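ok trying again, last paste got cut off:
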Amino acid sequence: MKYAIIGARILDDATPTNIEVTDGVITALGAEVAPDAEVIGAAGTVALPGLVDIHTHLREPGREDAETVLTGSRAAAKGGFTAVHAMANTNPVQDTAGVVEQVFQLGQEAGYVDVRPVGAVSVGLAGEKLAELGAMAGSRARVRVFSDDGMCVHDPVLMRRALEYVKVFDGVVAQHAQDPRMTKGSQMHEGIISAELGLTGWPAAAEESIIARDVLLAQHVGSRLHVCHLSTGGAVDIIRWAKERGINVTAEATPHHLLLTDERVRSFDPVFKVNPPLRTEADIMAVRQGLADGTIDVVGTDHAPHPNEDKDCEWAAGANGMLGLETALSIVIKTMVEPGLLDWAGVARVLSETPAKIGRLDNQGRPIALGEPANLCFVNPTATWTVERRALQSKSRNTPYHGMELPGVVETVLFRGRPTVLRAQVVV
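nice, full thing came through this time. structure:
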């Protein structure tokens, strides 16, 4: 297979160029185009390395009514992704080599993105006994990220043991930072609006106290820690403090914590119910600044599909979570690129290069250069699109951006040198 993608700008380079891809590898850069190449127009687009999501929920096995590996992979491709890390809270839980290999195989069969299963830290996400970390690491899925996301590894002894185990095979523990006792019955961010609405508050300290504990544990063990969906200004400060001391910690922000505030909860629409909750405008500004200055390493979508019945209900009964794969790049453009907080090299860093490094994905997040794998995303930054929930590739419809006009249209995506998106449409 040979393709010539014509007229794209590579990251922040103002000069359009042509990128030739042969059998999954970048084989030429410049003005010349091989006569036997299939031409793909890309004028006006920015070429990025294929996006990598460190935090995706694909629901299969167990909740195929919400999402499958196939539909989630198509949603990822539509959003510009060529790799996703599939979280462990499936049914059965991804806590054995057998289950992670099943998810890995489903990803291979779908063929739209690299699907890398995340292994559970504890058996059944119960937080009591370590899962088969070594067996999952040594499986065909080659798991390197372990998380009980959706549940906090609240026992400090278990967390320490997990950090010790993953160190052996250069793994990382991705922590859902939520003190369960401080958030029992919580419905939204604890603050002025929760008091006005009469909803039980979710204090920022519930997140920050776990992060503070875990960075100290990571320092003590000398292991890698990743903080999932950081959402408060105080959490940004703790990560900054830890990095200044050389602690091996990385952190992610979600698109919704870059844009949406707890003001949205006034609608009582459960589409805005998420874990951790939407925070204040001050928190959003702190998270944006932390992403801009490198304190926060990556953007992770926390793509969390739910069937209609889990969201079309009263607020208290609504499930936590939002869709994110198809809108993530647009939200980053809106909140970080347009205000001048990130350039395109910065976008590549937070949405591709660094998440690939955290997950130890050798063939993802690579430079756009000769001999590199052709996992590529071409986005038109000046075009806009309006989010329509029924037009999404995901099997679910719980997007908080329905009806919103967003910048940045993903026009073409190549995965292993093969188009998965052409003319802004998923190749089926």
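cool. The longest strand covers residues 376-386. The two ends are 18 Å apart (CA to CA).
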